[in-house]
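Lab notebook, bench 4. We co-purified these components, and the gel suggests they stay together. Before we commit to crystallization screens, I want a quick structural picture of the whole thing.
Request: model the full complex, all chains together.
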Amino acid sequence: MENFLIGINALCSFDALLAIGAGVIWGTVGGMIPGINGTIAMALLLPFTWGMEPHVAVMMLGGVYCGAEYGGSIPAILIGTPGTNAAAATVFDGYEMHKKGETGLALYLSLYSSVFGGLFGAIALIFLAIPLAKIALAFGPAEYFLLALTGLSLICSLGEDNIFKGIWAGLFGILLSTVGFDPFAGSPRFTFGLDDISDGFEMVALMMGLFAISEVFRQIQSFDIHDPQIQAQKSDTSMPKWSALHKFYKVNIISSIMGVIIGAMPGAGATVASFLSYSWFKKSSKDPDSFGKGNPTGVAAPEAANNAVTGGAMVPLLALGIPGSNSTAIMLGALMIHNVKPGPMLFIDHPEIPYGIFSSMFVANIFMFFVGVACIKFAIRLTSISKPALFAGILTLVFTGAYAFNSEAVDVLVAFLCGILGFAMRRAKLPHAATVLGFVLGFIMEANLRRALILTKGNYWNVFTNSSITLALTLIVLISIFLPLLKPLRKKFVVSKTY
Amino acid sequence: MCRNRKFIALFLVAASLIVCVAPFQAEAAWPEKRIEMIWHSAGSGGDIFLRSLAKAMEGKVPVPVIVNNITGASGANSWNHVARSKPDGYTIQGVSSTFIASPIVNNMKVSFRDFDAVARMFVDAVAIYVSAESPYKTLGDFIEDAKKRPGELSITGGTAGNIEFIATRQLMKEAGVNVSVVPFEGGGDGVIAVLGGHVTAGVGEFAEMSSSVDGGKIRILATFNKIPGFDYQTVAEAGFPQVTIEKFRGLIVPKGTPKEVIATLAGYFRAAMDEPGFKTYYESNHLVPAFLEGEAFYKVMEAQDKAIRESLGKK
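Here is the predicted assembly.
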């Protein structure tokens, strides 16, 4: 208790509050811009934190982290382009809601869920940092492999009319993820000798191509300049009633729990968390077909999850002194420049830092609500822009973002080619979302399967029966593969019975 | 036309004079403008090393010393940029052993051969560790058990192709034991796998795990480098003097930089080692001072290049 007072004390200064506020604004704006994610926003801010007290510096970076995880959802909803990788799952239903005219509900629901997830993560961090660290340690290679597989089983249900279309598109994504650096042999593979892709395809460029560019192509194709209806889209941009948002609290609680746990695991991160919670709700829904067509649960689930990750991700950094993600690695750098080392001793040597972070995460999420409302008010003007100007703007933003992420020209080309690919997939009714999912989870799955196989000396059976966690996950995978297969049969059965 | 030609002739004469005189002036007055040190990623351990060094040089060097980050392509952008910049000593590249491994692993065209070595400053101490709950107390215990149960134990050494990984394999070969070597994405992931009991032991930078050692969660079996202030057994003392790792941190400049400039720079860096603020930085981060100048540092890079190529089976 005394320690929490130290934390609140560290927080209650003008400097600290100003730093958190500025951090949240910078993070949210950065998150909104495709190509700038939380890690890059934090890295850009890092040199400015060196003059600060170490706890103020980390509080500011914490604010950026929270803001960026939220900011990514705004372009995801308004233009169908995730501002950050973790907002990719928000595109599925958020953008559809916007197209249906439920823009206000989508945007504010995403803000509500993000703040909910963020606060949940902060509270979990305060009370559960030590037990969460234990859960993180229980996950070894075999467990990570099955976690990725659980997420991947979603591809079975992404192909609407034909589950094999989802599987094919997902396998193609996994194939794309194998291009580049082989994690074990230590050499490039499937690069056809091209140096530019020896690091593999950049996820940001790939997502922008498959989501944004292909969507612009699709809309241009069916575009009639003389049609007055599509000069600007009509949509309801008003703030929805509190009760309309609050009824998603159950979704948010479950997603937040998943987010915190996955956040605490090094190597998984916000993108995996948002995909897993999305797939969880799609699979457990009574009407899974409504997902991907503008179901608000499809916005609430990933957004609550990816913001809850911020709390969880602090666990390995503070409890073990090991950064579990790129974002927390930047925080580690900020502490190291001040000769402060995170880890178990931090709680004893510098209690103002961990407890300051705990309380600042809480405050940052409250700030985020107000920053988010302001950003929404500003971003909503995008809906009144005429379509040709909007398309040109999106393409400019997307190509700039693809380049800015790594300052590499090849990423612009990758984004463009993925745009064409995505467009072709839409025409063939192949779910491009399954390709993205395969790409995101493919590498985690492959590296951990190979790692697990080294440990079991090549015995596949032992990988699946490694622990009770792997057994439980295997069961979930089997259920989610066979349920959609059985569904057409069941329908037939029901139909034949009624007639 | 005729007048024009005269002007050109005059201009050429003047230009050639400047070109002839310029190098002498530059050497006499070096440094006369700000010095830029470059690291490829912001906020990483190496970036902080350069920034602390720049701070230590403040006031001792007559010109400002700044640190810049050129990110992208896992370091290649930065290395290419510096390799191609003017060899005048004003653009300096900060490097670690990654700079040797990464071009080989990723088949990059840039390598240490495009640079002149200025100085090696430190060696990152590398240690073999187990979880505090593990029955092994020394490296000998671990190897003895590994001999009894061939193939049963496992060890992680960070990313495939990095220098810890190579040393791990070499050590197991020297000890004549069969242990599964499991690569992880980074040193941090390896520590967590060891803490979680998924892998028996690990090899990694001491600085990365020192807080877990202080917290009583991790036990050091042996270290590859003698760490000042600690009495851990070294790998050489445990009976394997052939296995060495020197995970260096140093500074290099584009090839063709004047020898005098390199010597002046190396002098600045040597002086920085005694600066009290910098001392606090490197001591608290467990960097082992290992100052080496010019040619001697270049030889270290050559030797590491050879070892990595052999381990990966690349020419």
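Chain A is about 75% helix and 0% strand. Worth comparing against the SEC data before the next meeting. Chain A touches chain B through 52 residues (CB under 8 Å).
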